[in-house]
Amino acid sequence: MRVSALLVLVIASILCAQQLEQLVYVSVFNGNEDIYLINEDGTGIKQLTDNPANDWSPEWSPDGSKIAFISERDGNPEIYIMNADGTGLKNLSNSDGNDWDPRWTKNGKIVFLSDRNRYWELFIVNPDGTELKSLLSNWVPEEHMCWSPDGSKIAEESDATGNWEIYVSDSKRKSMKNITNHPADDYDPCWNRAGTKIAFVSDRDGDQEIFIIKPDGTGLKQVTHNHTDDHSPQWRPLPSK
């Protein structure tokens, strides 16, 4: 009976571990901005990039197998891609300009902003670096907001009350609710793929840390705990069933 009970506990712990979602984020823990992987409960931290230059703005591919990000390792901000474990690093943009804000399309391509032609343009490229082309010229980026996966809600940052807070509203930006409501600054919200949690950045403990909260403002949890700045959280896509 003791063996059976122990077996049940082991299986339960394995199932709990399998249910944990993961995030990538940026930390200056080693003196410059690098990209890390972490479980939502704060365990399993893994450094994915390790370069004297800054690496930031990580974005998961739709299947969770790759990460696009910005790096200055060639002397200027460019778009790179790597596997989820940090291997397979590749420069996708290869320009003398500033390349910013990588985003994945649903069919696995990457769009990003660039001023390589002396004005901002929206480009698209394949994950292997081929078929690079301009989509829009004179592009003006919008303020930061994050749509829920089903498109029914928006999480966004606002300093309307005098400090930065996270607000959730419907798709028409009505019935806005302050879900953080803290004297410190809270910003950079990001929905998980199920639409049940929002990761965000807060300096409420004296430096930038990653927190998680439910869309109704309950269930606040701190994910990172260190004395350096952590920011830019992005949820890893859940595996297809």
Written overview of the protein:
The protein has one helix at 2-19; strands spanning 22-27, 34-39, 46-47, 55-60, 66-71, 78-83, 90-91, 99-104, 110-114, 121-125, 133-137, 145-147, 153-158, 165-170, 177-178, 186-191, 198-202, 209-213, 221-222, 230-235. The chain is built from 1 helix and 20 strands. The longest helix is centred in the first third of the chain and has 18 residues, at 2-19. Helices cover 7% and strands 40% of the residues. By secondary structure, the chain is mostly beta strands. The mean pLDDT is 88. The chain folds into 2 domains: 49-141, Lipocalin; 143-241, Neuraminidase. The chain has a 4-stranded antiparallel sheet, with no helix packed on it. Strands 4-5-6-7 form a 4-stranded antiparallel sheet, with no helix packed on it. A hairpin with a 6-residue loop joins strand 14 (165-170) and strand 15 (177-178). The protein starts with a helix and ends in a 6-residue tail after the last strand.
Please supply descriptive tags for the structure shown above.
2 domains; Lipocalin; 7% helix; 1 helix; Neuraminidase; mainly beta; 241 residues
